[in-house]
Design brief:
- With 196 residues, this protein is of the alpha+beta class.
- It has one domain: SMI1/KNR4-like.
- The protein is 32% helix and 17% strand.
- Strands 5-6-7-8-9 form a five-stranded antiparallel β-sheet. A three-stranded antiparallel β-sheet has the order 4-3-10, with no helix packed on it.
- Strand 7 and strand 8 form a beta hairpin.
- The longest helix is centred in the N-terminal third of the chain and has 13 residues.
């Protein structure tokens, strides 16, 4: 296991995130590579082997992509895909998004609303993490450039993505607030009196 894999494991553990199904045989991960005809980036391959589908244990994980403006909301993840043969099976998801996501990428995690986190598996995209926004997807794509329009680079590595994870804290700023008084006009109040 590489040093980065240990750091990934420690980061997930610190957040209370565990593997939902435990280790998967490396052979299952290699079958995906054979299907794709490409090697998966090592950090991601080790993650699939060690974790796959995650158990977030009621924690909502958020992250701010590199170059995010200060006023932007963080992104969140529903779950990572794995090799379990369930609804989050990576092979199933790759087939579902074939011809929708550029060939140099594969989806690796679902974000709320159907957006996808993808990892590069070919050419200049290898190992980089991309965000695919389904709202920007065109129904008819005629060029490779159009296929890339809903995609944006968010991290230079899988490691950078995981290291950016943080628990999404609800804004509790107003939880202890109380209403001290309310001012309403007599005309407004008369509407309620007359409606009875």
């Amino acid at each position: 296991m590489s040093n980065n894999s240990i750091k990934i494991e420690n980061k997930l553990s610190l957040l209370g995130i565990t593997s939902k199904y435990g280790n998967k045989p490396i052979r299952e991960v290699e079958k995906i590579e054979e299907t794709l005809g490409y090697n998966l980036p090592n950090e991601y391959k080790e993650f699939l082997h060690k974790f796959g589908t995650l158990n977030f244990n009621d924690i909502e994980v958020s992250f701010y992509p590199e170059n995010t403006a200060d006023d932007e909301d963080p992104l969140t993840i529903v779950n990572f895909y794995s090799v379990n043969g369930d609804n989050y099976d990576l092979k199933l998801i790759i087939n579902r998004y074939m011809d929708r996501i550029p060939d140099d990428l594969i989806p690796i995690a679902e974000c709320p609303g159907g957006d996808q986190l993808c990892i590069g598996i070919n050419n200049k995209a290898i190992g980089k993490i991309y965000y695919w926004d389904h709202n920007k997807e065109k129904l008819q794509v005629n060029t490779i450039e159009e296929m890339w329009e809903p995609v944006s680079l968010i991290y230079n590595s899988f490691f950078d993505l995981i290291m950016s994870f943080q628990e999404l804290k609800e804004n509790k700023e107003f939880d202890d607030s109380i209403i001290e008084n309310i001012k309403v006009s007599d005309k407004f109040l008369s509407r309620f009196k007359n409606s009875n």
